[in-house]
């Protein structure tokens, strides 16, 4: 069974940057659109950024211009570069397929606070 493992979260001050990574135990990335999601306390999980198999990207309006999603199929890894972080970006971040989601990983906590 394919497992997703997110990493790279942490505590950062407003305006700071983090780079998240999502690694899969199997080769699912090459043939699937992938996305990053986040869930803040008391809120529903939401789509943050997606990337197609050909590299096309889309972003939630709230992160457009600040976050960049990328992928390395050879390494079965998807990345999320987060710049100009704001307190409202605080959440647990997850990755998954866009279509036909598999079991969620444990996520990685991102906390933006001074």
Q: Radius of gyration from the CA trace?
A: 13 Å
**Beta-strand residue percentage:** over 45%
Q: What structural class results from the helix and strand content? A: mainly beta
Task: Give the biggest sheet.
Answer: 6 strands, mixed
Distance between the termini: 40 Å
Overall pLDDT: 94
Identify the strand order in the major beta sheet: 2-10-9-4-5-6
- Give the total of beta strands: 10
Helix share, percent: under 10%
User: Low-confidence stretches at least 5 residues in length (pLDDT < 50)?
Assistant: none
Shape, per Cα inertia axes: globular
Specify the number of helices: 0
SSE order = EEEEEEEEEE
Task: Walk me through the structure.
The chain contains no helices and ten strands. With 114 residues, it is an all-beta fold. Strands 2-10-9-4-5-6 form a six-stranded mixed sheet, with no helix packed on it. The model has no long low-confidence stretch (mean pLDDT 94).
Furnish the topology, listing elements before pairings.
Layout lengths: L3 E4 L2 E3 L5 E7 L9 E6 L6 E6 L5 E3 L7 E6 L4 E6 L8 E7 L10 E5 L2
Parallel strand pairs: 2-10
Antiparallel strand pairs: 1-3, 3-8, 4-5, 4-9, 5-6, 7-8, 9-10
Quick tags:
single chain; 114 residues; mainly beta; six-stranded mixed beta sheet; four-stranded antiparallel beta sheet; 0% helix; 46% strand
Can you describe this structure in just a few lines?
With 114 residues, the protein is mostly beta strands. The chain is built from no helices and 10 strands.
């Amino acid at each position: 069974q394919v497992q997703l493992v997110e990493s790279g979260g942490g505590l950062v001050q407003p305006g700071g940057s983090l780079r998240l990574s999502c690694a899969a135990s199997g080769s699912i990335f090459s043939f699937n659109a992938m996305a990053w999601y986040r869930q803040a306390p008391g809120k529903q999980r939401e789509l943050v950024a997606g990337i197609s198999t050909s590299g096309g990207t889309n972003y939630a309006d709230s992160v457009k211009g600040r976050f960049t999603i990328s992928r390395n199929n050879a390494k079965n890894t998807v990345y999320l570069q987060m710049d100009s972080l704001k307190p409202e970006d605080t959440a647990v971040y997850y990755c998954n397929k866009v279509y036909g989601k598999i079991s969620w990983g444990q996520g990685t906590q991102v906390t933006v606070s001074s």
